[in-house]
Amino acid sequence: MSKKYEFPKSMNDVPTHYCGGCGHGIVHKLIAQVIDEMNIQQDVLLVAPVGCAVYAYNYINVDSCEAAHGRAPAVATGMKRVHPDKLVISYQGDGDLLAIGTGETVHAANRGENITVIFINNAIYGMTGGQMAPTSLVGQVTKTTPFGRNADEVGYPIRACELLNTLVEPKYIERCAVYDVPHINKTKAAIKKALTYQKEGKGYSFVEVLSMCPTNWGVAPTVAADWVKDQMEPYYPLGVFRDVPGGVTPEAATPVAGVVTK
Amino acid sequence: MAKGRPLINKERCKGCGLCIRVCPKKILEMSKETNGQGVSFPVCIDEASCIACSMCATMCPDCVIEIEAE
Amino acid sequence: MAEKVLMKGNEAIAEAAVRAGCRFYFAYPITPQNEIPAYMAKRLPEVGGTFLQAESELAAINMVMGASAAGSRCMTSSSSPGISLKQEGISYISGAQLPAVVVNMMRGGPGLGNISGAQGDYFQATRGGGNGDYHVVVIAPGTVQEMADCTLKAFEIADKYRVMCMILGDGYLGQMSEPCVLPEFVKEFPAKPWALTGKTPDRKQNKIMSLKLSGIDGELNAHTKALFENYQKIQDNETMSETFMCDDADYILTGYGTCARVCKKAVKMLREQGIKAGLFRPITLWPFPAKELEAACKNAKKILTVEMSMGQMVQDVKLNCGRSVKDVDFYGEPGGIIPSVDAVIEKVKSYE
């Protein structure tokens, strides 16, 4: 008998601080597996966010840098410009990517930085105890929307893939989820595709992962997994938004104007 | 189908229970006893029926389960 | 003999940075330092470097953080309101012990203020500005030559001690043109085994972080104390200052940057009129050249601090001159007005 599924080599064998049933644990595992399979441990430079995943560097055994809240894409840009041959991953949560860091998110994508952004969307602020995120659903009860998110007051949630899909430069944008095994497998494939594209110098890639936050949603992990599928997925449709190297090229990616003509 | 068995590192488990419902053979149950965290962990109640599909290991957020297969 | 070239202050800083080995520069436009990004945009590609106009000053300082973590010599520049935006990044960079250079060509404040040179950011530069206990080495050049030399020094100190180094100039210094001898290209750079270059099998992962929340008792306490042991070494070894005619002076003028130029002129004119004045000019504002100041002021009857502000460095002068605070007078003009030589002379004469 040999091991068919084993503890990833690029994962540090330490207990994680994530809650039971948290999506971070799943995605960290997938990243470590992809690093093992692609044999890129010596090439990956990880930017850790401010959020529950601030300690990502304690779990994924690669050179890592902490970024201030929201600034990860800028830090990643600095790192990638110095080491264009390394594989820079900017791992971020919803506040990081879509609230405080919206500017950095949009501009790194717009410049087409050859980095991979992995966006964990769990529709809430985890680390700080469950406040509304830009991705929280209308009616969702959080610490700062105790009566449910009111669209008249604070608008609807933001859809990151759709937003970035309006820019010219990004090359690969996909939304995935980790609420069951088939979707986890697709998420792993997306992460692998993104890092492969980065290795081939193809440009900016963005993988959004709909994820569970049982503790701050106040439900059991299995109930949380169902909530992602039943409540989040209808608003955040899964799938490939663009995959330019793979032939999926929306109109926004090939503008007819925008270049000065002599 | 390959036969195999799950190797369960019970001390890593946080008792989330996500593995239990993804097992297609329904051979995982939460233990009666608790681990060092004070939570129950998965126990394979019928190793002979394990098909080494790895779905439990794939689902797990804490790398609790490895799969041995022939 | 190296040739003298006529250079604008801002451009001298940029060229000196390139010669110091800076190959990564990130910035956002703001008056009165826009010559620096414009120069770097043209010059860095010539030496295989990277110029990137960031989407904000906030993004720029974080790009510096990433580029520094990756082991490069890197720089950003801005002016007062933009430096305010960078304070978060400066605190993170300091906590993570990353070497980097930031240039502040000060302008009138607070808020949007105006675009003339001023010295209203002394507190911000020397007292923190970002959260937590840390220091940034602050160097205040007073001539275009010094702008070039101090920039080289800034990169050297940053790498030697793993700290942020700030060149604190002002709008006037940035705009003036003077002849200077540009420094030689630096050829040797210190090794950075802590940098993020990819975890190879022969070593552990490198982690750059300012968060010290591991659960080890007193981790942040110990880390901060270690930071300050490092700062003490800088204090012991890296102060820079100029004394001009202080030995027999009755009155010591103190000032930095543009104000020091005014004071130096005032000293010369006062001496012509038989009044024994001298100038003590700090060049490092942090670490403040305390011992040197105390020595210069030992026999003075009165000390006059002149600043383009409502009085910020004067506090350090009072603290460190070794005299009663009553012996220290202040004359300042905020909002971009340069104190006039005549006004300074009148002040000194009033002490007679």
From TrEMBL, chain A:
Gene Ontology terms, MF aspect: oxidoreductase activity, acting on the aldehyde or oxo group of donors, iron-sulfur protein as acceptor; thiamine pyrophosphate binding
Signal peptide stretch: none
- Looking at the Swiss-Prot or TrEMBL record, what is one Pfam family this protein matches? TPP_enzyme_C
Q: Please indicate which superkingdom the organism of origin belongs to.
A: Bacteria
Q: What is this protein called?
A: 2-oxoglutarate ferredoxin oxidoreductase subunit beta
Q: Where are the transmembrane segments?
A: none
Residues in coiled coil: none
InterPro entries annotated for this entry?
A: 2-oxoacid:Fd_oxidoreductase, THDP-binding, TPP_enzyme_TPP-bd
Q: Where is the Thiamine pyrophosphate enzyme TPP-binding domain?
A: 57-209
Gene Ontology biological process terms, A to Z: cellular respiration; small molecule metabolic process
- Origin species: Treponema bryantii
What are the UniProt keywords, alphabetically? Oxidoreductase
